[in-house]
């Protein structure tokens, strides 16, 4: 089969707690209108990366369109990076927070986002590699990762689930933790309640956590939120309050190794990983083509 004009739509059926039939139908209609063949992969929540890699290796898709949240975008990015085919990735924001779509100023209206993804040209974006895993947006160790862990374990998706998990997590979180960061030939150490690794500037709610973030400068930022600043951190993460740089330390670099005294929760792009006391980070400069 000639697949030269074929597009792969990856749909996450559970992201953002919304049904995706309408999105699929709209993409089918828009693709038909511009005479593109469409193949659809619906994520299963298991073995998706392997399935996607097989599909991408077997076919010659000219574009990958992701309908889901940051976790689904990360899935598509990881698969494309692994096969070393520079397939452009378009985004239909159909997640809960849609951090990456907000970061890229993509239309949040589904119809507009579909047209944007189908018609526009891609730009190269850096990918942060955290312990060998791709991070497209914002990842962190500490209190926010603990919140996400408890949110993942609850059965309530969406913003409400996240909010409901906040209070018990904050009460139970053993803070602060001791960190040692090797970056730019220096050692930084101290106590923190959260250390974030960000390529992007803002969380999905629009809160700017990393004003220096640039998606294609070959660098990422390490943001150290010191202890005793819990109200400041929550204000930053939950509200659209610009960060107060006096309360956090920012290290701009292209690689770093972080050790913590005790294991702490790690989250990558809103997906809980596991507890760890070692994080190795590097940047894959302009490795992925995103349509924005
Ligand atoms: N069919 C499925 N059943 C259950 N879980 C799934 C399925 N498909 C994907 N998942 C899970 O969905 C998660 C990714 O969701 P995603 O991050 O895209 O949406 P979200 O969390 O609602 O939005 P956001 O990240 O923008 O807040 C992954 O943990 C993945 O394992």
TrEMBL record:
<feature type="coiled-coil region">
    <location>
        <begin position="17"/>
        <end position="44"/>
    </location>
</feature>
<dbReference type="Pfam" id="PF19279">
    <property type="entry name" value="YegS_C"/>
</dbReference>
<keyword id="KW-0444">Lipid biosynthesis</keyword>
<dbReference type="InterPro" id="IPR016064">
    <property type="entry name" value="NAD/diacylglycerol_kinase_sf"/>
</dbReference>
<keyword id="KW-0175">Coiled coil</keyword>
<keyword id="KW-0443">Lipid metabolism</keyword>
<keyword id="KW-0067">ATP-binding</keyword>
<dbReference type="InterPro" id="IPR045540">
    <property type="entry name" value="YegS/DAGK_C"/>
</dbReference>
<keyword id="KW-0594">Phospholipid biosynthesis</keyword>
<feature type="domain" description="DAGKc">
    <location>
        <begin position="2"/>
        <end position="134"/>
    </location>
</feature>
<keyword id="KW-1208">Phospholipid metabolism</keyword>
<dbReference type="Pfam" id="PF00781">
    <property type="entry name" value="DAGK_cat"/>
</dbReference>
<dbReference type="InterPro" id="IPR001206">
    <property type="entry name" value="Diacylglycerol_kinase_cat_dom"/>
</dbReference>
<keyword id="KW-0418">Kinase</keyword>
<dbReference type="InterPro" id="IPR050187">
    <property type="entry name" value="Lipid_Phosphate_FormReg"/>
</dbReference>
<keyword id="KW-0479">Metal-binding</keyword>
<keyword id="KW-0460">Magnesium</keyword>
<dbReference type="InterPro" id="IPR005218">
    <property type="entry name" value="Diacylglycerol/lipid_kinase"/>
</dbReference>
<protein>
    <submittedName>
        <fullName>YegS/Rv2252/BmrU family lipid kinase</fullName>
    </submittedName>
</protein>
<keyword id="KW-0547">Nucleotide-binding</keyword>
<keyword id="KW-0808">Transferase</keyword>
<dbReference type="InterPro" id="IPR017438">
    <property type="entry name" value="ATP-NAD_kinase_N"/>
</dbReference>
<dbReference type="GO" id="GO:0016301">
    <property type="term" value="F:kinase activity"/>
</dbReference>
